[in-house]
Amino acid sequence: MRHFHPRTIRRRAAGVVAAGMLCVVGPMPPDLAVAAPPSPAQNSSPGAPAAPAPADGLAFTPPMGFNNWNSTHCRAEFNEDMVKGIADIFVEKGLKDSGYQYVNLDDCWALPSRDANGKLVPDPTRFPGGIKAVADYVHAKGLKLGIYTSAGTKTCDSVGFPGALGHEYSDAQQFADWGVDYLKYDNCNNQGVDAKARYTTMRDALRATGRPIVYSICEWGQNKPWEWASEVGHLWRTTGDISDNWGSMLSILKQNLPLASYAGPGHWNDPDMLEVGNGGMTDTEYRSHFSMWSIMAAPLLIGSDLRTASAATFDILGNKEVIAVDQDPLGRQGRVLSSEGGRWVVAKEMQDGSRAVALFNETSSPQRIATSAQAVGLPTADAYALRDLWQHQSYNTAGTISATVPAHGTVLVRASVDARWAEKPPAVELGVDDSLLVEAGRTTTLTSTVTDLGRTPATRVSVALSGPEGWTVRAASPTTAGTLPTGRALRTKWRLTVPVDAAAGSYDLTLRAIYRSPTGVRAESVLPLKASVAVAPPAGVSSLGDLPWLSTTNGWGPVERNTSNGESEAGDGGPITLGGVVYAKGLGAHAESSVEYYTGMACETVTAEVGVDDEKDAKGTVAFEIWADDVKVAETGVLTTAMPAQPIAADVSGARTVRLVVTDGGDGIDSDHADWADAKLGC
């Protein structure tokens, strides 16, 4: 995103690295020994030849570990105690056993000036024992230490710590002498020097040390490093910085997915560090984040402070079945099979011949997403085994791979040809046919479905729907079935009554089916749902900046009411300003963005003045859209910072909901601060 502001400036993170670098001279220290990649004999499978090992033996699978930046930035809590504490937690919480090994320092570990000999000086307040002492501590835990600098005269933080441009060989030797195992090489203050030349010089400097150091190129994807960096580093950033919100994660995901052909053992696309556990997304969204990074064979670098992490965060980060998808030795990045309407199917070939399949829902409502065993690349068979990697349950399927996926959710499965498929219960798909948008004090009818996807029938099937305390949920048709053959469904009508005093917001519902296989194996399937309680809009013309919304997503920080987007924190925007004109009311957004309002079929018009806010005076290309239910009713085309405010208006008569959407103009979301100035709803 390259928002260069005081504390977030720094993160053009993560880097390019390629196979065949960093020659090792002499014997490797015991605590740094690189595990030999599995042999072809151990890992060969039909249709999946063993991947070649990188020439230097490093980053055979995507690096896993921790980086402090997303949780601490340059604040005082980034220090020696924190780093040692993270190493301790890796061991105590089983993360080391799950594959996490690198404990990486980001910016601000050094003093602002080099010493009289031109050497880097660790900050004695943050790291009183020096970097080598920290490395020794980390190595004693069986882990590895990473460090950070920039391919420029200074690093990215506003303080301006020393960069490595012109000091590559000296700095690389210092890192090696300290026992560093991983270098993240950023891109700030690069003085316009050719990127490939800058990163290649550091590659050569690292090689010259004789120490095995994983080399992460953090060039932000500006010069298409995926086209040249496999001969330079082991991983390369493909995008700008991630931030801890759904819009940012989604935008980065969409930029990284098309680059699958460039990834492989020793050379990985890096869509930036994980935000799991930092608090800006829901656990459902964090599971999607972790699932999609894993199916993309992305580096898994924890970005949250594990010393205060929740049990849910550890459950996500420690899911060994999902990690196994990321770390599969074949080294394939998942490929997109379909993405229509925000319903994504991404499939990844695995070394054992199975396929990992992600059914990913980017929309704000539950969606049925479906594919088949043959579509993901499996050979024809009577039936297949299907393993749900989050539910940790195994099923059989006649060939269909489908699910109703919650809003912003991901179902991640592993499908395979398995001669023992009949020993597993049939897979069933749960779904709800109707909208989960409800009004307080009213009764809504919902229809649930339980569909047998297996080759064997589901028997003794029962279904239940539960809601929040105070809500009334009653079945209006049968909730049981003696037998469901393949492809048949149990459909149940429910009457859902919302208390009259229910506040607007999102509420949890749970649809649960219990059934048995023909051999008596009990199985359970659960679909978590979100019901949105809406408030009817007031009659007349209202400012959208003052009305409650149903949901928002935003590419950088939150959507702001009656101010510009500003930066990553809530409430940090300024006056909405387009072409020098200041507007008192409106919405400050950032591509990719969506703001949804309930209109209850009672409104007629949406109007606004739109454009890129003046707080971005150079970059920024966006396009604005208005949607009435699922129909696009107005759009602007691409607008830039050089253009004045443009009017947009739409007839939204008869719509239950209205969405205000900002897209990135087709060139990524860097600086895409988008204003819906003087936005009004007429009802």
Which keywords apply here?
single chain; 683 residues; alpha+beta; 6-stranded antiparallel β-sheet; 15% helix; globular
Notes on the structure:
By secondary structure, the protein is an alpha+beta fold. It is built from eleven helices and 38 strands. Strands 7-6-5-4-3-2-1-8 form an eight-stranded parallel beta sheet. A six-stranded antiparallel beta sheet has the order 9-10-11-16-13-14, with helices on one face. β13 and β14 form a beta hairpin. α6 packs across α7 and α9 packs parallel to α10. The N terminus is likely disordered.
Sequence-ordered SSE layout with sheet pairings:
Blueprint: H1 40-43, E1 64-67, H2 69-72, H3 80-92, H4 95-98, E2 102-104, H5 130-140, E3 144-150, H6 168-178, E4 182-186, H7 195-209, E5 214-217, E6 235-237, H8 246-256, E7 268-270, H9 283-295, E8 300-302, H10 311-317, H11 320-326, E9 335-338, E10 343-349, E11 355-361, E12 367-372, E13 384-388, E14 393-397, E15 400-405, E16 410-416, E17 428-432, E18 437-439, E19 443-452, E20 458-466, E21 472-475, E22 480-484, E23 489-497, E24 505-516, E25 522-534, E26 541-543, E27 551-553, E28 560-561, E29 576-578, E30 581-583, E31 586-590, E32 593-598, E33 605-612, E34 621-628, E35 631-640, E36 646-651, E37 657-663, E38 673-682
Parallel strand pairs: 1-2, 1-8, 2-3, 3-4, 4-5, 5-6, 6-7, 18-25
Antiparallel strand pairs: 9-10, 10-11, 11-16, 12-15, 13-14, 13-16, 17-19, 19-23, 20-22, 20-24, 21-23, 24-25, 26-38, 27-32, 28-31, 29-30, 31-38, 32-37, 33-36, 33-38, 34-35, 34-37
Helix pairs in contact: 6-7, 8-9, 9-10, 9-11
